[in-house]
DNA sequence: GCTTGGCATGAACGCCCGTTCAGTTAATCT
DNA sequence: AGATTAACTGAACGGGCGTTCATGCCAAGC
């Protein structure tokens, strides 16, 4: 598989994906033409079709690879054993991972409606798996008496929404570092699911890494 | 101003706005043509230009009127006096108002990037005013010792994000009614900002209507 | 009954769209 | 050196785009 000298195609393919990702994220799938993507890469429009079967596949591949990287990265993440530690790990992971690739995140959330139904279903299935990862943590914590939530699904959706919302306002060089934001969200999410502090079996444990 | 018989124009204008709102929300601004909007209304494309100066103004007017209705409706809302009651009112109001007009909400959040810079700034200013309404409640509650948050701005953004997130999953006829969802969110938001229950001056008060 | 004016048409303008493909280039292999 | 082939071009296809405007219709006002 691996070669000593990368052929031109091995470079152009990723360049096209990067250009498409950036343009789709900034202007929207429908508003970006194949010619504009080609111009960004420095080739003619026809060349794009040596690397993708059509515009829809280009979008779908960007979204699919983003979602699979997300799941794979969470799979590799050290998580701790107890539910509170796992939840804190999820919060830190989500914020870090999402802030590292804002364009892919934006695309994955905004262009679902641009996918043909079959592709939509495949992306939706991946998104669901990620959501389940969080729901599983909450469920385990509830079973262990470490969390107390009125409704598992609503708590799951709330947490995902508030975490993903960070991408809409966070800017590098702002008042808080990514890590500081992460810690504040760990604390807020902890309150959201935590039993009252006084009643907690081990109050100090939640913040543990 | 008011006439006995509405002229045709007084009907067609709103019809165009409704059709544009629905199509823009479902397929995206860039993906919807003026001809398609016209077809939905049952007129020719040229007719649209008797009611709007161009496609961009059509989008902007939809977003502007949505944001101004939001601010006006919150202004009319009975809010209670104490910060905890005001926060609960905000949560209930936000969920109810947003679930009542999913298309306008979707448009206002997804098509910001389709606005020319001047229009973007005007919508952004309105959004900021709404965000400030929530921040003011939290600030008052913190000053009164009723809330305890690590960071005012992050708490504000978190709450807005989790509330708006309801629109992405709520479906009528599902497991929970709008009111039930509202109450669960009142409780979750209460935990997010609440001092530990044991330390609260008046623990039972938060849920009050 | 005639005029006025609001309302709508439908053709036209210049331009850009996604996609295809015969042909050209330049690097690699024998 | 000649053949092969991967990479890319640039023109072309049919069609849709936002917007304009001369023209026609028809109900209301005189």
- CATH fold label of the largest domain in chain A: Tetracycline Repressor, domain 2
Instruction: Find the structural class of chain A using helix and strand composition.
Output: mainly alpha
CATH superfamily (homologous) name of the largest domain in chain A: Tetracycline Repressor, domain 2
Count of distinct strands of chain A: 0
User: Which percent band covers the strand fraction of chain A?
Assistant: under 5%
Largest interface chains and counts: A-B, 37 and 37 residues
Oligomer: homodimer
Distance between the termini of chain A: 40 Å
Low-confidence stretches of chain A: 1-5, 198-209
Count of discrete alpha- or pi-helical segments spanning 4 or more residues of chain A:
9
For the report, how would you describe the main beta sheet of chain A? none
- Supply the CATH architecture of the largest domain in chain A: Orthogonal Bundle
CATH class of the largest domain in chain A, named: Mainly Alpha
Write down the overall geometry of chain A. Answer: elongated
Instruction: Report Rg of chain A.
Output: 20 Å
Output the helix-strand order of chain A: HHHHHHHHH
């Amino acid at each position: 598989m691996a070669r000593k000298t990368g052929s031109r195609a091995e470079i152009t393919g990723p360049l096209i994906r990067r250009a498409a990702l950036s343009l789709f994220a900034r202007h929207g799938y429908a508003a970006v033409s194949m010619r504009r993507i080609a111009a960004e890469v420095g080739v003619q429009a026809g060349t794009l079709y040596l690397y993708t079967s059509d515009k829809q596949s280009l979008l779908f591949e960007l979204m699919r690879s983003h979602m699979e990287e997300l799941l794979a990265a969470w799979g590799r993440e050290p998580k701790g054993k107890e539910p509170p530690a796992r939840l804190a790990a999820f919060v830190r992971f989500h914020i870090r991972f999402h802030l590292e690739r804002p364009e892919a995140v934006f695309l994955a959330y905004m262009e679902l409606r641009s996918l043909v139904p079959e592709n939509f279903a495949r992306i939706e299935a991946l998104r669901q798996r990620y959501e389940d990862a969080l729901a599983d943590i909450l469920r385990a914590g509830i079973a262990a008496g470490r969390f107390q939530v009125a409704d598992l699904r609503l708590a799951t959706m709330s947490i995902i929404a508030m975490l993903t919302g960070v991408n809409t306002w966070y800017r590098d060089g702002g008042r808080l570092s990514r890590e500081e934001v992460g810690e504040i969200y760990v604390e807020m999410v902890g309150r959201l699911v935590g039993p009252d502090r006084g009643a907690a079996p081990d109050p100090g444990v939640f913040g543990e890494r």
